[in-house]
Design goal:
Elements (H helix, E strand, L loop, with lengths): L2 H37 L29 E5 L18 H12 L11 E5 L10 H8 L1 H33 L5 E5 L11 H9 L5 H4 L2 E4 L6 H12 L5 H17 L1
Parallel strand pairs: 1-2, 1-3, 3-4
Length: about 260
C-alpha cells in the first residue's frame, strides 16, 4: 500500500477494533446465552469464547502489504470466535477460498496476505441462520444491535473501499476489488438485507468504484466454486478472471436491482 492508503486502512482498523471491543464489553453477557441456545438444535457443543469477534489478522497488515481484495463474508463462526484464533474465514469456507486463489495464480492473490477479510456483522453464531434466532428471542435490544452492526460494517467497509481506490488514483498503489460473498442472505427478506441496502446507498455517487464490487455465492459447501465452474462451462471463451468478473457482475445486478 502507499503511505496514504495505509493511513486510510489504519484509521478503519482502529475504529473497527474499538467498535468490537465496545460491543463485547456491553453485550457479551446478553449475547452468550442466546448464542448457546441457538446452536443447541443443530450444532455440536463447543466452547463459546468471543460473542463479538474482531479479525486479528488485520493487525498483520503493514504498509508493505499489497492489498488486492476486500472480501466480505457473513459473520464469525465457531472456529473464528475461539480466543486463540479470532480470525475471519478460517474454517472450511476459508480453506476453500484459500485453495481457490492458490490454484489460480492468474489472480496474483494470496488470500492470507493480499486480502482484507471482513464480515457483514462481527456478532458470532455457529451458523449464519442462527442470527434469526438471536433477533427473534433477544428482544428489541439485540435486534437493534444486530441491525446497527450491519449498518456500521456496510458504511465503514464502503468508505474503506472507496478511499483506498481514490488514493490509488491520486498517489498510485492498487485499487482493490470488493468481493461480497454469501448471495442467498442478501436477497429480499434475507438476514443481511440492511447491510445490502446501506452498502448500495454508500456507492450511489461513486460509479467507478461500484464497478469494482462483485457478488458471489458463498465459499461454504463449494457453492462459489460450483457456480463459477458452471458459468465457465457455458462461456468457454472466457478466462477465469473474466468469468469471475462477469459472474460477479450478474449476481450484483440480481441482488442490487
Amino acid at each position: 500500500m502507499t503511505s496514504q492508503q495505509f493511513q486510510i486502512f489504519t484509521a478503519f482498523r482502529n475504529e473497527f477494533c474499538s467498535y468490537c471491543m465496545t460491543l463485547n464489553k456491553a453485550y457479551k453477557d446478553v449475547l452468550k446465552p442466546l448464542q448457546i441456545a441457538a446452536r443447541l438444535s443443530d450444532t455440536p457443543d463447543y466452547p463459546l469464547e468471543t460473542p463479538v469477534v474482531y479479525n486479528t489478522a488485520l493487525d498483520e497488515v503493514t504498509e508493505e502489504s499489497d492489498i488486492r481484495l476486500i472480501v466480505i463474508g457473513d459473520n464469525p463462526g465457531k472456529t473464528e470466535q475461539r480466543e486463540k484464533m479470532k480470525r475471519y474465514l478460517t474454517g472450511q469456507s476459508g480453506k476453500i477460498a484459500e485453495g481457490f486463489f492458490t490454484r489460480n495464480a492468474e489472480f496474483n492473490t494470496d488470500f492470507r496476505k493480499n486480502a482484507i477479510i471482513l464480515n457483514k456483522t462481527p456478532i458470532h453464531t455457529a451458523k449464519t441462520i442462527h442470527l434469526k434466532y438471536l433477533s427473534k428471542n433477544g428482544g428489541l435490544e439485540i435486534r437493534k444491535i444486530i441491525s446497527e452492526s450491519q449498518l456500521f460494517m456496510a458504511e465503514k467497509t464502503a468508505k474503506l473501499h472507496q478511499d483506498l481506490c481514490a488514493a490509488a488514483r491520486t498517489s498510485g498503489g492498487i485499487a482493490p476489488e470488493l468481493w461480497l460473498v454469501g448471495y442467498a442472505e442478501l436477497k429480499e427478506n434475507g438476514i443481511f438485507g440492511e447491510y445490502k441496502s446501506c452498502l448500495h446507498s454508500s456507492y450511489k455517487k461513486m460509479d467507478e468504484d461500484w464497478q469494482r464490487v462483485y457478488v458471489f455465492q458463498h465459499f461454504s459447501m463449494n457453492r462459489f466454486l460450483i457456480d463459477l465452474k458452471n458459468f465457465m462451462g457455458k462461456h468457454k471463451e472466457l478466462g477465469i478472471i473474466e468469468a469471475a468478473h462477469e459472474l460477479g457482475t450478474i449476481h450484483k445486478k440480481e441482488i442490487f436491482a
